[in-house]
Design brief:
Helix content is 9%, strand content 55%. The chain is mostly beta strands. The strands form five sheets. Strands 11, 13, 16, 17, 19, 21, 24 and 25 form an eight-stranded mixed sheet that branches. The relative contact order is 0.11.
Amino acid sequence: MKNTNNLNSKSPYSSQAIKAVLFAVLAAAGAYAIVQFISTNKPIVQVAKSTYDFGSVAAGVEVSHIFSVENNGRKPLQIQSVGVTCGCVKQAEMLDGDTINPGSNGKLKVVLETPTYETHKAENVTLHTNDPVTPIQTLKVTADVEPAFSVQPGVINFGIVEEGDLPVTQQIIVKSALIAEGNRNVISTSRMNEVGVTLLSKNSEEHTYTVTLPKNSPVGVISDDVLLALNWQSKQSISVLGQVVSDIYAEPSEVYERFSTKKAKQVKKEVHIKSRGEKVEQVEITSVSPDIQDFVRIQQAGASDDIHLLLNIPKGEPSTARVKGAVTLSVTLSKGKIKRVVVPLLIDRPVE
């Protein structure tokens, strides 16, 4: 009878074979542990949520978010520098210092200043660290920038107004969530000073303004803007349109010129003052709005009721694609009466 308790020396399960397998397993486990130790014996930067969306944000405000920066390694993590892609990121800095110990996390505060217009914002913030595998970690903040103001109506149009019917007024209602935030006042001004803007009433949700075309308004086309702002931020412009008519008028009633060259150029525009009643004795220049002073030179023409506007366009790239302003004239009539006439001027100079 065979003894089954004795293992065959050629069996794969001999003691020498088992020892060899155990040794190989232990060696592999040791090597793996060594590799794991070496691979983690360094700083490892990790940001669990590397993108933050502010959602819908009003124009011209500041919003902030704090990212959590973790060190999952075995060596201290050094934040060497923080970079941004836009000046609208007003702050991007570590709040707890530039060193994050193993197993700890640091706080990175990012402050985004939204522009004064409607747009989608997406800006990157880059962390430069001593992590040998990921030395640069990129974070992102996004926002949908909405208009800070809701203004009704969006355009003020006085239509055609007889000189004798002046003054005339219209109202605008300004709503903004920012008004209630600290009950800040809306600042209002007239760009061309052709209209007056007066605060009529206000509460925590809206401001009501009266826009007035005054009694002493010049004759001619109205081309003004009401500028609205919160502490000179979140600016918005409301166009003011219309025309004051009288027995005198300018022909043409407004001047437009378009230049599509980078070369210096001069163009002469003639403006004639007409009268349906008294004779025009003299026309003088009262003022030129600041926005167009560098672009226009005025000459008195030979006839008493004519003037020449010399539009001077300097050489080189334009600093702005559109220049808008007005020339105000003082008109003396035959019986000594003096009236003011305004001639709006618009220059388009596209950037090539």
